[in-house]
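Collaborator request, handled under Task 6.
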Amino acid sequence: MGTEINRALGVGAIQPNIYVNRSRFNIGFGRELNADTFEYSSLDRFASETALQKMIKSNPKIKNITKDFNPDLKLNIKELNDLKHNHLKDTQNIVKGITENLPFALKNRVDIQAVEDAAYLHDLGKVLIPPEILNKPDKLNEYEIKIMHKHSELSYELLKNTGINNKTLNLIRNHHQNAKKTGYPWVGKDFNADLNLQILSIADKYSALTESRAYKKSMTPKQALTIIYQDVKDGKLHPFVFKALVNYAADKNYAKVS
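Structure tokens returned to the collaborator:
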């Protein structure tokens, strides 16, 4: 793609000195985004057992989605607490770090409120995925993968009637999609993986790769970035977003050493 990463993932440290040929990446990110107008007192008010039960009652579609794998709509409260204390907050922090490291022209086009809110709420649907699938120590089979892929749609449906704006809701629904439309859930031909979605998607992926889970050990930042760079080469991720992630990871690593 014309992107050079000179020793960006070299031995010993993550190097942020990525060169990007600007003339070859004049890629549009869709319409300019406006600031979120919805007032939040705390995002945790959407992430409690009581709130989730109310969300389920307000949207019959949720029962239809889960009828084959969770007909009783049992909530995995342990998963909810784990998410709030680990992955959701971590993803939100990574989103902030990526945004801060973007070039000024792109940073001004980020809807910070929408992306950060989506980062904290994007995986709420996992509380409806059976624990034996969510925490299976072995590789998921085709049926289990299909169920696991329902979590982003469930997050969207849970939050749809809460008053959260559509921009944030669509980020939550599509956080596993990309510019090539090879992710999930299904999107139409007019779908645009804009700057905000790319930031959220890559923050979620970096967090997932660098944390330990029942089925895998945590990766080092260098290992995670090596995997994510493939998305740049495949045209799924804008190189400037990747560069901002590398810079964030380098700054965080330097802070730990210091």
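The cover message to the collaborator said: "Confidence is low (pLDDT under 50) at residues 1-17, 21-40. The first helix runs from residue 49 to 58. Please let us know whether this matches your experimental observations."
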